[in-house]
UniProtKB/TrEMBL annotation:
GO terms, molecular function: AMP kinase activity; ATP binding; ATP hydrolysis activity
Highest classification ranks of the organism: Eukaryota, Viridiplantae, Streptophyta, Embryophyta, Tracheophyta
Catalytic reaction(s) noted: ATP + H2O = ADP + phosphate + H(+); AMP + ATP = 2 ADP
GO BP annotations, alphabetical order: ribosomal small subunit biogenesis; rRNA processing
InterPro entries, sorted: Adenyl_kinase_AK6, P-loop_NTPase
Record flagged with keyword Transferase: yes
Keyword Cytoplasm among record annotations: yes
Annotated ATP binding sites: 19, 21-24, 115
Protein name: Adenylate kinase isoenzyme 6 homolog
Region (Disordered): 1-25
Amino acid sequence: MVQDSKRSRPNILVTGTPGTGKTTTSTALAESTQLRHINIGELVREKNLHDGWDDELECHVINEDLVCDELEDIMEQGGNIVDYHGCDFFPERWFDRVVVLQTENSVLYDRLTKRGYTGAKLTNNIECEIFQVLLEEAKESYPEDIVLALKSDTIEDITRNIATLTDWVRNWQPRS
């Protein structure tokens, strides 16, 4: 595991299929740990870090290089919770913990349909969760000992996850 000794606070990536509770978890974790929450979707929109709009999937096509350039200095400082549904393009050195939130398919289906997801966007996201695409992506992109899969079906799950991660942050020590 590569940890930058210049950082006095850890960086956490919270990833998972849309609808698994990344933003809810990240927001509450930021409040309990005083770490900075960075929602990549919002950052992409605010700073135009994209290459246009994908009509079929109804989302921006993010420019991964622009996103990484935008975040480089802030990530080196530490103390960040990055919230995004992808993870393989971020530099490995940035993160001390990678959390993959997972949600049971019927729960996820209900959450996404409430958001107005239909057609290819709904199907792709449900299939992504069924096949554990983001967990595999995280395991391939980061040292396995920093990747943590957490169930995120209920408010109780989210509360427990925040407590677990808050304890981890409090006990984190930079490696020299």
